[in-house]
């Protein structure tokens, strides 16, 4: 690391750095060339560090950035010079702007407030990912359910952005929330989805009715017990949030909802049964849905493991549905039995960690379909004892977008 030559910091016609500003370029290795700025607004705070190539890529001038789209322009990348270096730099502390002249002759300026939000420190990156990108999920066991369970009033969600923000945040963190006192009308879910963004359409339409019916095209349309599952694992872009509005509830002892946080189940397997956990993360399974709904005939297939991880080892999706697991299993022979043994363990733990409750007419159960497995007990279905649930989906991209907009609005008010 070296202190830049003071003469290189002088840019004609600009205010020079005040003594308390520490502005350096560092170059332990060529790919780690950085500009380091001490944040004078927070004494004692670690210096802000910015790779020089990142600063050049994120120049805010009119040649490089289009304000109305809030995005960089592609011109730089048509002939990107990755060897570009800082030629001169200075900071105007009164205006709080960092000025840089580059070895390619380009001049850039960066507001310090903008830089503070993008500081590469671990604390700042962690804050951004958990507070703005996506709330950090908190996993729960079946015995924890009554402590994390939260209810929201339907009318509040339609009328109040504050209530809407609280619902979406709770749903993002815990994966489940119950909405109470919704009218017994067919457009309830559409109104809720429109408050967030818009519904996700599938092969079963926008909204769908879950009730016992002869010649059912889906296992959920039977009165028999519905085993724990995620909805539609046969879609590459699986619906993210499931909404279930109870219009009529069976008076029989059955029809009880079952829910398990499958991320918690995955935690248990990762800790106690690492080999079975690895199998469920690495073995692709063929998920399928074949049938007809109205005039639409379909044959959906998607191959993916039961437990899906991102590049950092975090859970991003659980796939599980016994009726919708295809008889095709396109893996090498030696992987078959280990998968069955690992999956039997997953199902056992999911049942052991399940919570149960029964919704009443006017309830809307909302939950993370990428995370929770859900089911219900069987029930009696007669002309005088009907269970009727209306369902719909929203994608998580739409939910997270609305959540950020609401947070920004709240912080700016």
TrEMBL record:
Residues 148-392 form the TauD/TfdA-like domain. Keywords: Carnitine biosynthesis, Dioxygenase, Iron, Metal-binding, Oxidoreductase. One of its GO terms (cellular component) is mitochondrion. One of its GO terms (molecular function) is 2-oxoglutarate-dependent dioxygenase activity. Its cofactor is L-ascorbate; Fe(2+). Pathway: Amine and polyamine biosynthesis; carnitine biosynthesis. It comes from the Eukaryota. GO terms for biological process: carnitine biosynthetic process. InterPro entries: AlphaKG_dependent_hydroxylases, GBBH-like_N, GBBH-like_N_sf, TauD-like_sf, TauD/TfdA-like. Residues 47-116 form the Gamma-butyrobetaine hydroxylase-like N-terminal domain. Belongs to the gamma-BBH/TMLD family. PANTHER family: GAMMA-BUTYROBETAINE DIOXYGENASE (PTHR10696:SF33), GAMMA-BUTYROBETAINE HYDROXYLASE-RELATED (PTHR10696). This is GL11099. It comes from Drosophila persimilis (Fruit fly).
């Amino acid at each position: 690391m070296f202190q830049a030559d003071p003469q290189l910091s002088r840019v004609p016609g600009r205010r020079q750095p005040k003594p308390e500003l520490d502005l350096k370029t560092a170059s332990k290795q060529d790919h780690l060339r950085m500009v380091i700025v001490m944040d004078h607004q927070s004494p004692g705070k670690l210096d802000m560090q910015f790779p020089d190539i990142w600063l050049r890529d994120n120049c805010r001038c009119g040649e490089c950035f289009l304000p109305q789209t809030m995005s960089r322009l592609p011109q730089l990348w048509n002939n990107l010079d990755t060897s570009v270096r800082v030629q001169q730099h200075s900071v105007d502390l009164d205006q709080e702007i960092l000025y840089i002249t580059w070895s390619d002759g380009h001049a850039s300026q960066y507001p310090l407030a903008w830089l503070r939000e993008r500081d590469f420190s671990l604390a700042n990156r962690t804050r951004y990912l958990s507070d703005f990108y996506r709330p950090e999920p908190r996993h729960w066991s079946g015995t924890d359910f009554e402590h994390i369970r939260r209810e929201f009033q339907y009318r509040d969600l339609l009328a109040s952005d504050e209530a809407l923000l609280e619902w979406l945040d709770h749903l993002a963190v815990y994966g489940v929330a119950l909405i109470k006192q919704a009218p017994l009308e067919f457009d309830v879910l559409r109104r809720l989805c429109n408050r967030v963004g818009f519904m996700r359409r599938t092969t079963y339409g926008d909204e769908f009715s879950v009730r016992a019916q002869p010649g059912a095209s889906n296992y959920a349309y039977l009165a028999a017990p519905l085993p724990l599952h995620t909805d539609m694992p046969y879609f590459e872009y699986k619906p993210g949030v499931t909404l279930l509005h109870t219009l009529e509830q069976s008076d029989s002892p059955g029809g009880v909802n079952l829910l398990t946080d499958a991320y918690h189940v995955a935690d248990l397997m990762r800790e106690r049964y690492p080999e079975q956990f690895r199998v469920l993360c690495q073995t692709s399974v063929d998920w399928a849905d074949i049938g007809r709904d109205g005039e639409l005939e379909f044959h959906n297939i998607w191959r993916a493991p039961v437990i899906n991880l991102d590049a950092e080892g975090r859970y991003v999706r659980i796939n599980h549905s016994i009726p919708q697991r295809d008889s095709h299993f396109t893996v090498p022979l030696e992987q078959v039995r280990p998968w069955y043994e690992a999956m039997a363990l997953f199902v056992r733990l999911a049942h052991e960690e399940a919570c149960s409750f029964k919704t009443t007419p006017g309830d809307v159960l909302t939950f993370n379909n990428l995370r929770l497995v859900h089911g219900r007990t069987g029930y009696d279905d007669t002309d005088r004892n009907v269970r009727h649930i209306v369902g719909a989906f929203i994608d998580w991209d739409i939910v997270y977008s609305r959540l950020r907009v609401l947070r920004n609005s709240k912080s700016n008010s």
